[in-house]
Structure formats: C-alpha cells, structure tokens
Amino acid sequence: MTSRLFLNSISEIEKVPEHSLKHLLNEAHFNIKVEDAIIFGIKLVVIYLIVRILTAIAKYLFRHTMRKQAEKGMDVTKVMFLKQIVVTAIYIIGCATFLSLIPGMEKISNSILASAGILAMAVGLASQEALSNIVGGLFIIFTRPFKVGDFIKVDDEVVGTVIEITLRHTILQNVENRMILIPNSKINSATIINSSYGDSSTCAFIDIGVSYDTNLDQAIEVMREEIMRHKLLIDHRTGEEKKAGVPEVVIKVINLGDSAITLRAWAWASTATDATIMKYDLFKSIKERFDKEKIEIPYPYFNQIVKNEGL
Q1: Backbone phi, psi, residue 229, to 5°
Q2: Taking phi first (over 0 means left), then psi (-120 to 50 degrees means alpha), and beta for anything else, what does residue 169 get?
Q3: Cα-flanking dihedrals φ and ψ of residue 279, to 5°?
Q4: pLDDT of amino acid 33
C-alpha cells in the first residue's frame, strides 16, 4: 500500500514539470514563442561555430601553403590575397545564412548567396573608394608590378619592403621597422621604383666635391682605392668591358661648381639596401682618406666687411 502511494506521488510530480515546461515553451512574449527563440538562438550559435571553424581551417591551409611555397622560393603574394577573399566569402555566407533565419529576410539571403547577388551587394554597400581599392588589389596581383618581399619606392616618398597585399591596402615595412599602409587605388596610380624587379644589383652614386687646386688624378685614385676596399662592392662589368680595360669603379668629373669640382663614382652592390649602406660608409672613409692625403673638400664661406664711419 505504501509503495503504491509512493509511485502515484512520483507520477504526479513528473506530470507537473512536463506540463509547466510545455506551457513555458508555448508562452509568447512580444508575439514570439519562447520555444522559437531558443531554437533561433541554437541555430545562431551553430552558424557562428561553423563560420569560426571554416575560417580557422582556411587560414591554416593557406598558412601551410605559403610556408611550402616560401621554402621552395616561390611567390606567396597570390596565396595571401586569395586567403583574404576566401575568408571574406565565408563571413558573407555566414551573414546570409543568419539573415535566412529572420522571417521576411529570406529573399535578401538568397540574393547574397547567389554569385550575382554577392557582386550586387558589394557594389551597393561598398563605397566607391573601398571598391576601387579591391579592384586595385586585383590589378596588383595579376599585373605583378611588385610582390611580397620586394623593396620598392612609391612616388619618391615612401620606401620599404612589401609585407602584405590585402583587399584594401598594400603594407610596406620601412627601414625604421614602421608599417606603412597605402591604399591599393593610390599605389596603382603611383610611380613605383622596384629594386627587386629583374636584376636586383644597384648602382650607388658617390659624389664628392674637391677644390679647384686639387690634383684630380690623385683624388680619383684615392676614391677608387677606398671604394675597392669595401666588402659590399661587386664587379658589374660585362665581359666586353673587362676586355676593353674599363675599370671596376668608374669615376668622372660631372660638375664644375662655384666653389668645387664634383667627382662621381659609380659603385655597384648586390641590392638596393647594400648600395645604400656602402654609400654611407664610403662618405666617411673617403673624407678621412682625403684628410690624410691633404685633399681639400671645400665648403662655402663668406667674408664680411664692416665699415666704421667714425675712423
């Protein structure tokens, strides 16, 4: 008898929560059922997790591909740019899927998922400047005026190594280790000097002024000796030039100035960076050598005459 009453009481207790749960789920707030809200939240979390997982997988695969190409000495510019496109596409699809969960937004979601819809959305939502930057990035990738790792100068103002080409910007790292972000639309219309395009060897102009009473042959020989000692100097002569006896370092008089005769030496290095370092080193060593050889490097000076009317 006692056991029977116990079982009946348990069954009655089990019925109460079930009834209350159904009532709670069917209860509506602001014309939205709690059950529908819970299902919507679950779907939203699932979409979020799927998007995060897919982007993580895509980034990992592209990282793996870039590492392999870098080890083989191949260009990784296209892979980096494609990674940006793929990750952006995943986010767009995720947003479209989320919109499809909202009543009345299904048509917008379907148009986004369609390829023509994605293009229309980009044209409609993106500003003209942002869209021109994306198109500019595509031109950079496929026309290849430069690639990741190239040392470039933009409009004689910005100098640095290309680190990354994104959908909107080209990122350069200058010698001060600062990152410079240039919009793709701007860099497409700029004048670019690419020191890594083709033959990377670079000629440094070493211009030194000497006084008019200087023995030019002696000054030229001293300059040549100092330049030939530098470890970054390379022999850029052709076989014909070597047979013709052209010196490894050519030095000429390029200007007869107001107070100095300017001598220019053409010194070659393997890269633009090496050429710059060599040039700065040689300014110091040539100046010190000229001091030892009593070769004057003139500088402008003025004589001021003061009249004393009282005398």
Answers
A1: -80, -20
A2: beta
A3: -60, -45
A4: 62
Give the pTM: 0.54
- Map tokens 């009481």 to a residue: 9
Q: Which residues, in sequence order, are CB contacts of 12 under 8 Å at separation 6+? A: none
Per-residue pLDDT, averaged over 234-263, amounts to 91
Q: Which two tokens stand for residue 259?
A: 């107070």
The CATH number, out of the four listed (3.30.70.100, 3.90.700.10, 3.30.200.20, 3.40.1190.20), of the domain defined by the range 202-292 = 3.30.70.100
CATH tag for 145-194 (out of 3.20.20.70, 2.30.30.60, 3.20.20.120, 2.40.10.10): 2.30.30.60
φ/ψ of residue 244, rounded to 5: -80, -5
Task: Indicate the domain borders of the chain.
Answer: 23-125, 145-194, 202-292
> Which token pair is 204?
């440094």
Tokens of 132: 């021109």
Residue 218: is its pLDDT beyond 90? yes
| Mean pLDDT value across the chain | 79
- Residue 155: which region, alpha, beta or left (left: phi > 0; alpha: psi -120 to 50)? left
| Most confident stretch, 46-50, 119-123, 287-291, 306-310 | 287-291
